[in-house]
Design a protein that fits this description.
Layout (H helix, E strand, L loop, with lengths): L1 H15 L3 H9 L13 H8 L1 H28 L4 H20 L12 H11 L1 H18 L2 H18 L4 H16 L1 H9 L5 H4 L4
């Protein structure tokens, strides 16, 4: 089992390091780590380059989250592992993929915030929870006019799925990811406090 865990963590991390922001930078010539809120994610791509680039980055980052989980689901399922072990591996690879997105080695371990990747992970773990999480993210973000509140609801959905899963390790992993998300978004809360945080309505006025 330990070989599975090591392989899953390594695979997830490396897949997570495949950033949509790198593709956007190559196409546009604009380094997202040096502009806007200096974050390598879909929200900053939208702020700096507009909705089309934001959608491109989001699609890539969602896709890699889903891909990592589906790959592990395929191989662990065919290996005939117990349900508890499969659940552990699926949540582990999801967490590792988010970690790869947030802390890619070639960006000095300072990447994005993992929101789009979590959506992909959720969709692959259970598409129903994935759709609910995405819907809550959009509705809450539009209602409050701040993306960060929608993101928190996405993680609440992830936690809920973990409680429905086999074993207790998915719950532990989901809690760790939730705490990581809060830590990664501290700067957003700080900007909200001083009134400099970008509002959703302002961001999506960009072409």
């Amino acid at each position: 089992m330990w070989l599975w865990v090591i392989a899953v963590l390594l695979c997830g991390y490396l897949i997570g390091c495949l950033h949509g922001s790198v593709v956007a930078t190559k196409i546009s010539g604009v380094n997202l780590k040096e502009t806007g809120v200096k974050n390598a994610g879909a929200s900053n791509a939208t702020i700096v380059l507009g909705k089309k680039f934001g959608a491109l980055v989001a699609a890539i980052d969602i896709g890699k989250g889903a891909l990592a989980v589906l790959l592990v689901h395929f191989f662990s399922g065919n290996a005939g592992l117990p349900a508890d072990d499969v659940a552990l591996l699926l949540f582990l690879v999801g967490a590792a993929t988010v970690a790869g997105h947030n802390f890619p080695f070639y960006m000095q371990f300072n990447g994005g915030k993992g929101t789009a990747t979590v959506i992909g992970v959720l969709l692959a773990l259970d598409w129903r929870f994935g759709l609910v999480g995405f819907a809550l993210l959009v509705v809450v973000a539009l209602t409050t006019n701040f993306l960060v509140f929608g993101v928190l609801m996405l993680y609440v959905t992830f936690l809920t799925l973990a409680f429905w899963s086999e074993g207790y390790w998915p719950i532990v992993i989901a809690i760790v990811l939730f705490m990581l998300a809060i830590w990664k978004h501290i700067e957003n809360f700080q900007r909200m406090k001083v009134g400099s945080e970008k509002r959703v309505s302002a961001v999506f006025k960009k072409k």
